[in-house]
Amino acid sequence: MNSNIYYNRNETNKLLLLAKKLKNKEKYKKIHIDKREFFKPPNMIKPPNMIKPPNMIKPPNMIKPPNMIKPPNMINLHKDIHKINHVYKLNYINASSSGIGDFIRGSYYLLQLSESLNIDIDLHIYDNYIKYYLKYFSLKPNINENIANNIYKYLGDGPIYTKKNEIIDYDIVDNNRNFINYLNNQPTYSNNIFVNTINFPSRFISEHHKTYMKIVMEPIDLFKIEIDELINNMGLIKNDYITYHIRLGDSYLANHNKLVQSQTLKKIIEKLNIVNTNKYLLISDSTVIKNIIYKMYPDIKILKTIIGHTMDENSQKIKNTLFDFYLMSYSKNIISFSVYEHGSGFSKWCAVTYGIPYICYAL
Q: What class does CATH assign to 221-362?
């Protein structure tokens, strides 16, 4: 099976075909390939014969638009770069990685950029257990180790975060010039570069980009069965419950016994609007806050599992975190709380990908 599926403007149909093809359980071993031959292009599917359209009425001569002046803040991508590979791994040369939500966000940014630059993009997971739970990555051979060990994370400027009426939002900052300069300074391998970014895309995410990311995030069949069983056992009905996601920060995650400050707890409780607790799911990175709210609303749905992070090296903790992600993906609304000025990428980009109404309150 050819697993090197990547995105360009005409790839959506191929990806939908891929979703059917990936039902096989075939696994690839880690492959070390010479830099010059690390990638083989996918077999192209010959399109069916198209029905010839009727003769069209010739439109009148159009006025040719004037030559457009290139904006002064734009620079060209190096001509040797034909494809950008976005790589998710535990550590980069200059920084450690962040969560899966940030990877999804950066992927949306690259999808938009690749269209404007008219080049291809592909996504990879290198040394994180997440790849074994996702079809798109589980069937792909690993990138070359020498390439993986020579990746720099882009650490450019992010957006301007705002907080109006305690709701976290942001204004996009155009950093394409700096980012393209970063791309031009990466080593190339057969016209490919391998990078990582958590840049914010524009606010408008196209439906074909969402379709692409849904396929990228599709669980393997066995994990999908576990997710469905979990939803049934919890008494939840898909797309008929509201998820409360509370992000208290890594300090709470590292110390489960740390007390929740009364002011923080008060802010959360004030925003909870629970009437029928059978239709509410609670997800958090703090067992303390989960237990407090569960005692107040004993019918609210929670997962009683060990809390982890998608950058954890413990496969069970990663699996538990993915359970949270996919439970959220079937929500009809997601209401998030976060101690971070940027909110929570974990719930935000889950909501964007699956078209779920979303709001995030500052704590």
A: alpha beta
